[in-house]
Amino acid sequence: MGKKKKKNVEIVHPDGNPTQGQLSLCRGITSTPVLEDSVAWEPRWSDSVTGDDDDIDDDNEVGNVPPEGDVVVVKTIGVETSSTASSCFRGPSRRYIAAPSGENGNDRRRRKKKTSRQDMSWFLTSDSEICSGGPVIPDVIPSFGGHVALALWTSPEKDRGVLECFHRPGKVESLRRYQWSVEGSREIVRDTRLSHLAGCMIHHLDVALLSAFVERWQPDTNTFHMPFGEMTILLHDVHHILRIPVEGVMMRDEASADILKADMSGLVRLSVDASVGGEWKSKWFVNGGMHGDGVLVRARELQIEEVEVQCYLFVLLGSTLFVDKSRDRIRPAINLFLKDHRSVAGYAWGAAALAYLYRQLGVATRVDSKSICGCLTLLQAWIYEYFPLFRPSQLVQSADAPRASSWVCPRLSGGDDARQRLLGYRHMLNEMSPDDVTWTPYGRFPGKEVPRSLFTGVIRFSDIAEVYDPGRCRRQFGYRQIVPRPTMVPGEHYRPTSGISYSVFWSKSVDQLWDNLPGHSLHLDFDSFPCELPSEVDEGYIDWYQTRSHPLINHLSFKGKSLCRPVLLDKLCEQIVDRLGPVLKVRDRAHFVEHAAEYYQILTTTHELYDQYIGAQPR
Question: What is the pLDDT of residue 5?
Fold first, then answer.
């Protein structure tokens, strides 16, 4: 253990009476600041990156909390400083909130203090100044004050542009070609129902398209707010796109940073002492995250079946479902659910991946956020499933294959070209109607095929928990949309303009809802089809929605600009050449432009004949 240094601190209780204590800091370990000669405090831990910081260590910082729910501010009195102190105890002050009596400190995440909690400008109330683009009534999306869409509306000249999208195509490809060192390991991994993930990730992301949809995400409801209502990624989408389990045990387990470190050192058969220095620290464990390459190298060296299986799954999941912004590291919390390979298939990995993506989408909506991570294959494939206008070419494959692997996504240019595509996508989304959406891409009754998709409550991955409310998106089940009931509100949340300070806390008590699906699910009548077109809504829904949402991203003064026309033309040409080329004898884009009028007449006539055919069918 490193040498201890002590600093005087002041503990300010809610009654205003300060007490003195000593703060001990241990060099060389991400350790708990310990107050001596003062109140007995209980540690709170965190392992998940929720902000825009690439340094996983920031999220492994540990805070202490006093008992009985006291709120305290710890202020440095002494002037002694050190690198260890600055890394464990940033800024002039920290605020910690104790867990309720009887609740473990691990049940609540320590909230970051990189911006002042006194700044509540991000939270809208009835007294807030109303934005001309909405919402007029801020009860549905109260955190819109820190949203990038508000900044785009009020200050379009400060457009943040295209997000940096973190994914790991190189690592995924190496996993797909992985050479097993122990006979039998491959079969065990296949039994987990996760082995196919390396083969269904999208390698070429459309960062402009993803950025355009992020701008429409509202973390208060965990839905995309479109001009015609709300949509979201649902559990039946995860089931069809990734083919991973969405039913099973909720992934609730959490652990301290020290326990996670001990687990990882045990996995690769190194002592805990070795894990904090020497070869271990320099080769594998860096800034609170594990280097995936080092883990697999060690597994091949040991040639132990259970170690190789666990290490492979650890790297696979960290490179597909739970990608962070570190580029080459993997968060240790994943290992909590891999200790017994026989139980891996029993976890609800789909729900965990969706909760993690929900959180990353929420962080990315903040004005100062510049990037996004998570399973972006899930997000991009979901867009393709529901929005035909954005679809690339698609391969024909078996019905039980992951639909994500069917999309042939071309490599798209970045820089100014990506920015131009983003401007075009914004305009296209602003102009969309419900008729431009394929509401039920997997069949008529997705809720009947995947009952867990109807669950209403909170989904979780370790200490990340997010609300899941399918009632806001009934049209995606093939039913008429009605005015939804109010969405559940977390016990604590902080969504300012800075993604680094973004935090949401749900009590563990809400997890029991997952275990009672019949009592906590959206009730739909599968014996009848309530509407002829799934895009239908109840009377009054649109009026309700328009006053509580921000349906348009671009300011009205930007509406109608021709920046998107090249994008629209390219998309149209691409789809006609790929899909109708053999029928219309279209060779390429130039040939299409030359004979555009002729092709337009053919397509118009075909559409009219189709309408007449549909109208003549008996009902």
Answer: 38
Neighbour count for residue 525 (Cβ, 10 Å)? 8
Q: Which amino acid is at 397?
A: Q
Nearest to 452 by CA among 397, 393, 513, 503: 513
Residues 6+ apart with CB under 8 A from 527: none
Encode pLDDT of 184-198 as tens digits: 999 999 999 999 999
Residue listed under structure tokens 């909230």: 111
Q: How many C-beta atoms surround the C-beta of residue 614 within 10 A?
A: 8
With cut-offs at 50, 70 and 90, classify the pLDDT of residue 446: very high
Nearest Cα neighbor of 285 from 300, 302, 298 is 298
Element (H, E) at 8: strand 4-12
CB count within 10 Å of CB 82 equals 13
**Cα separation, 114 vs 91, whole angstroms:** 8
One-character DSSP codes across 218-244: ETTTTEEEETTEEE---HHHHHHHH--
pLDDT value, residue 297: 87
**Run of H or E residues at 582:** helix 581-584
- Alpha-carbon span 405 to 408, nearest angstrom: 8
Are 27 and 41 in contact by the 8 Å Cβ rule? The answer is no
Nearest of 315, 232, 316 to residue 522 by alpha carbon:
232
Contact 282, 325 (CB under 8 A): no
Rounded Cα–Cα distance for residues 388 and 165 (Å): 22
Q: DSSP state, 78?
A: S
Stated pTM of the model: 0.75
